[in-house]
Design a protein that fits this description.
Helix content is 38%, strand content 19%. By secondary structure, the chain is of the alpha/beta class. Helix 2 packs parallel to helix 3 (82-94). It binds adenosine-5'-triphosphate (ATP) and (4-amino-2-methylpyrimidin-5-yl)methyl dihydrogen phosphate. InterPro entries: HMP/HMP-P_kinase_dom (IPR004399), PM/HMP-P_kinase-1 (IPR013749), Ribokinase-like (IPR029056). Keywords: ATP-binding, Kinase, Nucleotide-binding, Thiamine biosynthesis, Transferase.
């Protein structure tokens, strides 16, 4: 069985972070492992508090995983401090990790800041250059480029700038657009759109975590990046379209929407 590792924070309400990642990887047919960067006390309405793990403890988790069950892909989500980012970069290089998907999580859907300002700089310097693909949303791409993104042409220009600047492919997510949910993949100087109809569902807690984990699962299974993204886009659209409605705020998606479908079955 193929394996994937998520390096991310825990979401007590189960909609985002490690919990979303493990559900996604499992449903997409890979064995999921986790290294926690932080515990968050949060629900669908907001983040109450955050407790970071120590860099040494994060390093221990990564040693335990990499020396025993080597992951076929690695997804990185919420990492809030410079020290934790440094530790992750060090270990990914030491173990020559492959198929690294970086979701540069900065602000939760509920508005809570999930990374410190100085950590954004460390993320750019140490982690982004290790990524096979980076999956920013529009505000994150604006932060990474200093550009304002208001139209499809801006998305292409921003993705090109990020890809050239950090030497990785970029999937610029369009969930924050007004009319549609079109994502742009920029890889080796070429762009390709993955078109999505906007689903009238305000329960979007964890969409970014889910999409990046599905991409990691597909890369672990051996799909090339375009196919990994295409399958992940179908998966997120299905999970969102299942219209689960839990909690008092922006609720989670239904990861089990496809239990009778084919996202993971053929590889199990
Ligand atoms: N209402 C929607 N209808 C259809 N697809 C959507 C919708 N909202 C988001 N998506 C899709 O979900 C994926 C995640 O995109 P989004 O831009 O929301 O990321 P994000 O902001 O990082 O997510 P998060 O909510 O976890 O912060 C993308 O494929 C995007 O197109
Ligand atoms: C632990 C953790 N990781 C990531 C997110 C971002 O997800 P979202 O933007 O959907 O709230 C989150 N809220 N919590």
């Amino acid at each position: 069985m193929k394996t994937a590792l998520t390096i991310a924070g825990s979401d007590s309400s189960g909609g985002a972070g490690i919990q979303a990642d493990i559900k996604t990887m499992t449903v997409n047919g890979v064995y999921a492992m986790s290294a926690l960067t932080a515990l968050t006390a949060q629900n669908t309405t907001g983040v109450k508090s955050i407790m970071e793990v120590t860099p040494v403890f994060l390093g221990d988790q990564l040693d335990c995983v990499f020396t025993d069950i080597f992951p076929d892909a690695v997804k990185i989500g919420m990492v809030s401090s410079c020290e934790l980012i440094e530790m992750i970069a060090e270990k990914l290089i030491e173990y020559q990790a492959k198929n690294i998907v970086v979701d540069p999580v900065m602000v939760a859907t509920s508005g809570a800041k999930l990374i410190s300002d100085d950590a954004i700089e460390t993320l750019k310097k140490r982690l982004l250059p290790l990524a096979a693909v980076l999956t920013p949303n529009i505000p994150e791409a604006e932060e990474l480029t200093g550009m304002k993104i208001t139209a499809a042409e801006d998305m292409v220009a921003a993705a090109e700038r990020i890809s050239t600047g950090f030497g990785c492919a970029v999937l610029l997510k369009g969930g924050h657009q007004i009319n549609d949910a079109n994502d742009l993949l920029y890889e080796n100087g070429k762009s390709r759109w993955f078109l999505g109809k906007r689903i009238a569902n305000t329960n979007t807690h964890g969409t970014g975590c889910t999409l990046s984990s599905a991409i990691a699962a597909n890369l672990a299974k051996g799909y090339d990046l375009e196919n990994a993204v295409g399958r992940a886009k179908d998966y997120i659209s299905g999970a969102l379209g299942a219209m689960l409605d839990l909690g008092h705020g922006s609720g989670p998606m239904n990861h089990a929407f496809d239990v009778c479908g084919d996202f993971g079955r053929e590889e199990r």
